[in-house]
Specification:
There is one protein chain. By secondary structure, the chain is mainly α. The chain is built from six helices and no strands. The protein is elongated, with a radius of gyration of 20 Å.
């Protein structure tokens, strides 16, 4: 199919993100990229588990005394809900409903910003207590893992916002449909990583 073909809801392909060879290549290439990201986060998780609660003798901060599950749970709910709204966005994209897609992507952005606001608050709280990046091996491992994830959330928000702004007047076509799709894939990946962070860092840390 040609990128410049004029579509209607009846002629729009069921999977527009893979209706062209370029679209298929983008999706496959992005899965390869995500595989590399898995290796990155696996390394950070392994480092965190090795250094958890490790520091100077008589260490002041531990996972049980530091982390607060209600805050982490609120952050988790925001991010998981944003994953659901991105699913709705792709649903509307596949049904050739550009306005609906943009609306759900905007909600996804709002939820992602809410998550970032809580994470920034959490970091500021820990720093105020004296739990800084170089306070101990445990602190360095924690901020490296959770901070790297937060950086990925920032990238995802900028990516989705840029796509929305650049295509606001263009509508949907077979050129930008794969771009919206892989951005949603990236967002789902970020959400999955956070589920592991919530389980390994916060839940296991508090419960012991």
């Amino acid at each position: 199919m040609d990128f410049n073909t004029k579509f209607t809801p009846h002629t729009w392909p069921d999977h527009p993100e893979q209706a062209t060879m370029e679209g298929k290549n983008k999706v496959v290439g992005f899965w390869i990229f995500l595989a590399c990201e898995v290796v990155l986060f696996a390394s950070l998780f392994a480092t965190y588990l090795a250094l958890k609660n490790k520091g100077p003798a008589g260490m002041e901060f531990t996972t049980q005394g530091l982390f607060e599950l209600p805050l982490a749970f609120a952050m988790t709910m925001l991010l998981l809900t944003s994953s659901l709204t991105s699913v709705y966005a792709i649903y509307h994209m596949r049904n050739f409903n550009f306005k609906g897609m943009q609306t759900w992507l905007a909600i996804t952005l709002a939820l992602g910003l809410g998550f970032l606001a809580l994470e920034i608050y959490e970091f500021q709280h820990y720093v105020g207590l004296g739990f800084t990046f170089n306070q101990s091996a445990f602190a360095t491992a924690f901020y490296s893992l959770v901070g790297t994830h937060g950086f990925h959330v920032c990238l995802g928000l900028v990516w989705i916002a840029t796509l929305m702004i650049r295509n606001a007047k263009r509508g949907l076509n077979l050129y930008n449909a794969p771009k919206f799709f892989v951005a949603a894939l990236y967002w789902h990946f970020i959400d999955v990583v956070w589920v592991f962070i919530f389980t390994v860092v916060y839940l296991m840390g508090v419960i012991g």
